Amino acid sequence: MEITRVFDLLENLKKYAPKEDILARKFQGKWVKYSIDDYIEHSHEIAYALLALGYKEGTKVITMCNNRPEWNFLDMGVTLAHMIHVPVYSTLSQDEYEFIFNHSDAEIIVIGNLNLYHKVSPVFEKLERAVKVIIMDATSDMMCLPELYEIGASNKKKFEAVVEANKKNISPDDVASIIYTSGTTGTPKGVMLSHRNLTFDSHAHAIRQIKNSSHKMLSFLPLCHAYERTMNYEYQELGISIYYAESLGTVAADLADCKADGFCAVPRVLDMMYGKLEDAGKKLKGVSKFIYKLAWDYANNFDNHSKNCFYLAEQKLFDALVYKKWREALGGKEMLIVSGGSSIRGKIVKTFNAARLYIFEGYGMTESSPVIAVNNPSELDNVIGTVGKALEGTELMIADDGEILTRGPHVMKGYYKNPEATAEAIDKDGWLHTGDIGYLQDGVYLKITDRKKEIFKLSSGKYIAPQAIETMIKESNLIDNVIVIGENEKFASAIIIPSFKELAYYAKRNKIKFSCNADLAENNEIIKLIHDYIEGINKKLSPHENIKKFRLINDEWNSSNNMLSQTLKLKRRFILAKYDSLIKDIYSNTSNSAE
């Protein structure tokens, strides 16, 4: 059947994949599973309950929770009632909550548990309208989701005809959801996505999927983000079971426990997994260490396009000796992994691919529902360093200044209550201006090089594209994160958070004394190590792009301290403000020069 509204997925599942575990949640160490019948029943109960409580068409319903099946019940229930789902991160600041709660005109806020409710509740006093708060977990303190099910069940006869009429009359072009961009600058904007936006985009990458209803995927990236959300829609279109991890800290254990066939990730998660695999080799001794090192080096340089029999025989040998054990630790399956959100280091993709944990990198933005391009598993088309080909049914164009433009059914309806920003993002010909700079490799494969707004000019008039340089710098295991700076200055510099774990290994091997991370960051031998690495990077850059100075800092950047967005991209404005005095010192001091 053709899926053009979000809730069409329910009928599709019922008809083509009547499973007992279409959704599952890890709770207190055990999997709680839901059948398709459970899914349909709870979704309809929520729709009936919202109508019974007196809420009208177009009502905005906010959800805030960790990934769990109930999120889907609400997503479907809200849209069946012809209302608008506004999923929100559970890790925002009080100011961000206040803005979104007010700006969205939400009348209902559904919160995962009482702990999160107590975190958010101070904001309720600042809201411009009264809101109904519902807790997902069972509680006697206030209305909860089980109570909503009961209200819906008791009002089924009264509102069943209304919901059935909605199924017939809701247009694919009606707004299904408003998603507030986490953004790296400025105030969040509410992206209005229609049913068609979401279902077109999820279908367009579903047809590139090689997994089917006999498989299961683990989900742990936030469902409030369009990336994980439409991947979940993709899974549901194909009848793939979705198992929700208990937490980010249990992902590896949950993968092994449910024996997943894949998952979606951001590069940061895959970085951490890569680091653990590397650490495993460092703990070995003798022949085992030697074999692991050979397998590691082979994987880091793996050519997934090679047809050489001897080369592929090496892969089989290393698989039997090393890579198979990696898979066994994650459940034993060959996996399909989609990476998005930011660029991923090429050697991580190569290493995972060598171990048959196949990574396919994609690209998109909330405003495009979100996927624009992705490498294609169904055609074994995986060009490392690119984000693959544009989705079928969409258009892609590179503007004269290098900006990536896209047009098609995946482009948002606009920003909620912000026509000016909408007109700025979507031109009169329907092209969405992504703000990203890139080009088509071989005229086909999209390669992202930087963010248009992040490119800055030196005092000499030369331009610097910082993201491309940062990606190169982060290729080393010595570097955890980096920001390239130098707007209106004579040269480019960098603020670097090194990998203190790697530096500790180096220090112990080279008998460098240290008692804490600060000692490592200030040690002259360590600084020289990083200096020599940066010098190697500079040789690959144009002279004006060279990093002339750098500083090592003992800090952490994350979304909680506002240094990274919710999708783990650098929030440059906030980072530059935090390190203003350090930046001034860099440009008035000659220490840590890479010249």
Number of helices: 21
End-to-end Cα distance, whole Å, is: 63 Å
Q: Radius of gyration in whole Å, from Cα?
A: 25 Å
Which strand order does the major sheet show?
Answer: 11-12-13-14-15
Most strands sheet: 5 strands, mixed
How many E-type strands? 25
Nearest-integer average pLDDT: 95
Question: Structural class of the secondary structure composition?
Answer: alpha/beta
Q: Please state roughly what percent of the residues sit in beta strands, choosing from under 5%, 5-15%, 15-25%, 25-35%, 35-45% or over 45%.
A: 15-25%
Secondary structure: helix percent: 25-40%
Instruction: Provide the low-confidence segments as ranges.
Output: none
Molecular shape: globular
